[in-house]
Amino acid sequence: MLYANHCATLQVCELDRDPSSWPTRNLLTRLFPCPGPPSLPPSWYGNRGPLIDPEPKFCHQCGSPLTQEIPQGEDRLRGVCKACGMIHYVNPRVVVGTVIESGNRILLCRRAIEPAHGKWTPPAGFLEVGESTLAGATRETWEEARAEVEILQPLVSIDLTRIGQIHIKYLAKMKSDDFEAGPESLEVRWFDYSEIPWDDLAFPVTHWSLRLRIQDRDQGSPHFHRGTLQWNQQGSPLDFSNYDLSDLQSWPLDIEEGNES
Amino acid sequence: MLYANHCATLQVCELDRDPSSWPTRNLLTRLFPCPGPPSLPPSWYGNRGPLIDPEPKFCHQCGSPLTQEIPQGEDRLRGVCKACGMIHYVNPRVVVGTVIESGNRILLCRRAIEPAHGKWTPPAGFLEVGESTLAGATRETWEEARAEVEILQPLVSIDLTRIGQIHIKYLAKMKSDDFEAGPESLEVRWFDYSEIPWDDLAFPVTHWSLRLRIQDRDQGSPHFHRGTLQWNQQGSPLDFSNYDLSDLQSWPLDIEEGNES
Ligand SMILES: [Zn+2]
Ligand SMILES: [Zn+2]
Fold first, then answer.
1. Is the dihedral of CA A233, A235, A239, A242 positive or negative?
2. Residue B217's CB: how many other CB atoms inside 10 A?
3. Could you tell me if A134 lies within 8 Å of chain B, comparing CB atoms?
4. Which of A88, A90, B46, B214 could form a disulfide with A79 if both were Cys (CB 3.0 to 4.6 A apart)?
């Protein structure tokens, strides 16, 4: 089911834009089931397992095998448990983080964990149940950079539809000068915006987030950007140049730039 | 683990704000495991099951019983499968929707499904894997109101930490005059903003989303708002007056109001 949705998006994504085409899209998805996700290099597999969640095969409430069917009143396949009746929904996960600035500098972490071990990224991680996006972004910043930050503005909300993730990044500033590498980081340091290690950034979403922020800085005009990161289905899914940011919408914020420090 | 996190948030939420208190918070959570979520009225149980996901008991990959333990390098309990090694992460789900305006009117749907059967709400529903927040909001609008809309601006991002949901709503306008009740709606109609059925709105998040939008309209100043909906732990969790919107941050958008139609 997960792969079917995934595949529908990759292969017939144009059909997603027009509601009147959705019956056709759903039919296509059923007629041509997806062979599975593209094979990924080992570095995509971290301590959270594969980036694309495997399709559930057993009921997590009673342990019985699941059946794939379209529940009454729905329009797509779900894992259904015939033993206890539970329907197993798989939904995107949210990744929250901060882009921390001080003057012309940005704080980046070099990752000590897979995926993208040794690569640079602003602090970010999976939102947990029980915390707000604000609390999650702050927690991840503490865990990875041992920095306490104040949130200034929403910067980007980027959908990674291929792997079922939404990345929400806030622009932030330090509450104090203190920081150090947390257990998930090899190193944490300031980079001048003119020195960003573009060839050693962790993920395509990292690249696009920084690129959008630099554009705002160059124009002196802060924005909140949302877009969809689309893999071109060719080349490495780790290389940003194989992605487009589609559906980009950028809303100007009527705020002062908060980086006078 | 889900309930433990949930409980940590409800009972020691002040400790969440200060990173230096997190070891204390985590210790408290382990010493005083949560008795489970508060009992909810039947109307909270819909065709997606209980609003709060039950804690996973079995591995969805191999069907073996899960053990609750703190994986190496992490700081909280997870369901771990000793048979196949899989760690089962439970993360918040994203609900996407649209607040559709035409002049002084807003389009609301009367729900034909639980939870909140018979109550009014803007179109909204769970984001699916493979779609962007934009595509999800558009799809839900079609499914519930058979309306095709153009997204104008982000309106609210409200965290429902108690039940592990993030609600993202976009302000939108109709592409045509056509709409009708979809299968999940009893009725769809325009309401003048002076006639909102406040006592028959579906959810506390509905109430707060409309309230924030009306504030923006009254001030002639569009904003993107984010906040955390906090239940006061007393009274019905369906009654908006038992909630506060905490951590509210509202960023003014430098755009024209798009409702000249
Ligand atoms: Zn079952
Ligand atoms: Zn297993």
1. negative
2. 15
3. yes
4. A88
Dump pLDDT digits (tens) for A160-207. Answer: 998 899 999 999 999 999 999 999 999 999 999 999 999 999 999 999
Domain at B93-252, CATH from 3.30.450.30, 3.90.79.10, 3.30.200.20, 2.60.120.650 = 3.90.79.10
Distance of CA A179 to the CA centre of its chain: 24
pLDDT score of A178: 97
- Phi-psi label, residue B130: left if phi above 0, alpha if psi -120 to 50, beta otherwise: left
Domains of chain B, by residue range, sit at 1-36, 93-252
State whether A63 and B63 contact (CB < 8 Å).
yes
Q: Enter the DSSP assignment of B32.
A: S
**CB B121: neighbour CB atoms within 10 A?**
22
**What residues sit around ligand 2, an ion, with C-beta below 5 angstroms?**
B 59, 61-62, 64, 81, 83-84, 86
In angstroms, the CA A70 to CA A196 distance is 48
Chains A and B: how many Cβ contacts under 8 Å? 207
In this structure, what are the phi and psi dihedrals at residue B78, rounded to the nearest 5 degrees? -135, 160
Residues 154-183 of B with CB under 8 A from A: 154, 157, 159, 161, 164, 166, 168, 183
Find the helix packing angle between A22-31 and A2-11, rounded to 10°.
Answer: 120
Helices and strands per DSSP (H, E), number in chain B: 4, 12
Rounded (5°) CA angle B202-B207-B212: 150
The neighbour count for residue A1, using CB atoms within 10 Å, is 23
DSSP annotation string for A220-236? T--EEEEEEEEE-SSS-
Q: Is the pLDDT of residue B123 over 70?
A: yes
Provide the β-strand partners of residue B243. B231
Q: Given A9, A59, A113, which is nearest B130 (Cβ)?
A: A9
